[in-house]
């Protein structure tokens, strides 16, 4: 099973880019993850937040197959422990169907259609983070999930 992280827009903050690259490098031998940064549709145009969410949602949905498991990061989602994330991740890998996609929307959230399509709404915290910070936190948590699965002392 392929694992993908789909995110709206490339990170702009150098520390976010460096952090994500750090975890990408550490993950490579353990758990290959494909990182896809979609161009922001309508960028530079005057769109409402709702119009932007809808355009972004359509862009995401074009890349998601019916067999894919979609874990959508959302502030209203369920909060898992790192152990639960690791367990769910490796359960999906064992099934081997489609892709497991972690999706991080843009700064205004995600469309209703995308939320409906999601297999799981997942929240990183009750606090609010920028979508770029969510990307970095998700990179670390996927790495941590792999470390938990391997029995490493990284997670203690």
Which features would summarize this protein structure in a list?
5 strands; 5-stranded parallel β-sheet; 156 residues; globular; alpha/beta; 43% helix; Alpha/beta knot; 5 helices
Written overview of the protein:
By secondary structure, the protein is an alpha/beta fold. It has a single domain (2-150), classed as SPOUT methyltransferase, trefoil knot domain (Alpha/beta knot, 3-Layer(aba) Sandwich). Helix content is 43%, strand content 22%. It is built from five helices and five strands. It has helices at 14-27, 49-61, 82-95, 112-117, 131-150; strands at residues 2-8, 33-38, 69-79, 99-104, 120-123. Helix 1 packs parallel to helix 5 (131-150) and helix 3 (82-95) crosses helix 5. 29% of the residues are buried. The model has no long low-confidence stretch (mean pLDDT 93).
């Amino acid at each position: 099973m392929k694992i993908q992280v789909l995110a709206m827009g490339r990170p702009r903050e150098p520390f976010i880019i460096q952090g994500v690259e750090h975890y990408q490098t550490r993950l490579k031998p353990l758990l290959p993850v494909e990182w896809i940064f979609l161009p922001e549709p309508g960028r530079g145009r005057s769109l409402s937040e709702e119009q932007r969410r809808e355009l972004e949602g359509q862009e995401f949905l074009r890349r998601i197959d019916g067999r894919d498991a979609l874990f959508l990061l959302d502030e209203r989602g369920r909060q898992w422990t790192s152990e639960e994330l690791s367990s769910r991740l490796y359960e999906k890998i064992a099934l081997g169907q489609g892709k497991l996609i972690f999706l991080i929307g843009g700064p205004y959230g995600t469309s209703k259609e995308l939320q409906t399509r999601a297999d799981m709404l997942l929240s990183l915290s009750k606090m609010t983070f920028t979508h770029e910070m969510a990307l970095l936190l998700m990179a670390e948590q996927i790495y941590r999930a792999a470390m938990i699965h391997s029995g490493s002392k990284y997670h203690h």
